[in-house]
Amino acid sequence: MAEEVEKEEEKKTRKPVDGAFRQQRLPAWQPVLTPRSVLPAFFIVGILFLPIGGLLYWSNGRVDEIMIDYSHCSQYETPVYLAPSLYSYLMSKDTNMTDMEVPAYHYENTTVFQEPEFSNPNNLTFKQCVLDFTVPKTMQGPVYMYYRLTNFYQNHRLYIKNYDPEQLLGHIVGSSTLNTNCGPLAYTSDGRVIYPCGLVANSMFNDTASNLTSVTTGGNYTFSRSNIAWPEDFQKYRPTQYPIEQLAPPPNWALRYPNGRYTEEYPPPDLNSMERLMVWMHMAALPDFRKIWARNDHDDLPEGRWRIYIDMNFDTLQYEGTKWLVLSTTSPLGGRNPYIGIAYLAIGGLCILIGLIFTLAYCIKPRKLGDPTYLSWNKPGGGLPTNKRRQKLEKGE
Known about the structure:
Low-confidence stretches: none
Number of strands: 14
Membrane topology: Multi-pass membrane protein
Strand content: 15-25%
Number of helices: 9
Main location: membrane
Shape: flat
Family: Belongs to the CDC50/LEM3 family.
Keywords: Membrane, Transmembrane, Transmembrane helix
Protein name: Lem3 cdc50 family protein
Oligomer: single chain
Structural class: alpha+beta
Order of helices and strands: HHEEEEEEHHHEHEEEEHEEEHH
C-alpha cells in the first residue's frame, strides 16, 4: 500500500517530459532555403565584389615599385651585375627595359655609419654596400623606402613575447619579472641590466642606408627617417630611469659602444626617438615581410641611374634568408598588393558563375519544394525521436 502511495506522489511531482526539451520550441529564425531565396544572394555578392576587386586591382597598377636583393653584396669587391631573379621593376605603365642597365653592387670598407645616431668609438671597420640601380621612369612622390626580409620568423611564440613593456616605458623592473619576460637576454654575466632587453630588440634590423645620389648628374634625393612610426607608438617608449652604471646594451648593439658598455659620452638610447625600433617591434605575421625604412613625402624621384650606400650590419646568410631594398610609391588605397584585388575578383566571378549554373538548372529542371510542416523543428517535441522509454515517461509508468 505504501509503495502505491509513493508512486502516486512521484507522478504528481514529476515534471512533464516535454519540459526537458522546451528550448526546441523557442521562437527562432529558421529559414527554409529555396532557390528563390538563395540565388539572389549569389548575384548580390558577385555584383558587389567585382567592382571592388576591379578598383583595388586598378589602384594597385598605379603603384611604382623597385625591389633589389643585396644580400650577397659583402662578397664582391668589384662591381657585379645582378641576375634578373634578384631584382624587379614594377611600374604602373609599360616601360622599355630592353636597353636599361641592370643593378650592380660591390662593397667598400668604411668606419663611418650612414645612420647619424650610430657611433663608432671602437674604430670598427665594416663593409658598406655600394648599390647602383636604374629608375626607368619618374616615380611620383611620396616615395617610400622599405627593407624586406625573407625566412625571418618574427611570429615565433617564444620570440614574439620576449620583451618587457614596462622597461620600454622607462620603469625599473624587478629581476624575476625581467627574467620571465626577457630571458635569456635580461642580464649580462656581470649582473648588468640589458637595455632594451629581450630577443626582439637584440635582433633589430640594423643595416643603415644613405640618401640616393645620381650617378649621372651628382644630385641627391633625400629621405626622412622620422614620421615612419605610428603616432600611438610614441606612448609606449620613454627614457629609462635606470642609472647608466647598471645598464648594458644588447649583445648585437655592443660593438657601437666603448667596451660594450653605456657611458656618459655614449649614453643609453632614447627609445622615444628611435622610430626604426618602434617599427621593428611590430611583429610580422609571415616570414617574408617588409618594414618602412625612410620616406620622402614631397619630391618626385626622377628617372636615371642612382647610387645608394648601405652598411652591412645585419647578417641574413647565416639563417639562409635574404634582404632587399624596396622603393615604392602608394595609391589612395595603399601600396602594391595585387592579391586582394584578385581575391575579390575571383570570389565575385565565382559567385556569379555559381548563380548562373543553379539558375539554369532550376529553370530547366525545377525541383518540387516539400511541405515545410514535415521539417524537424515543426514537429511536436522538436523532432526528437519517439522511443519506448519516452512513451513510458509520458504515460507516467
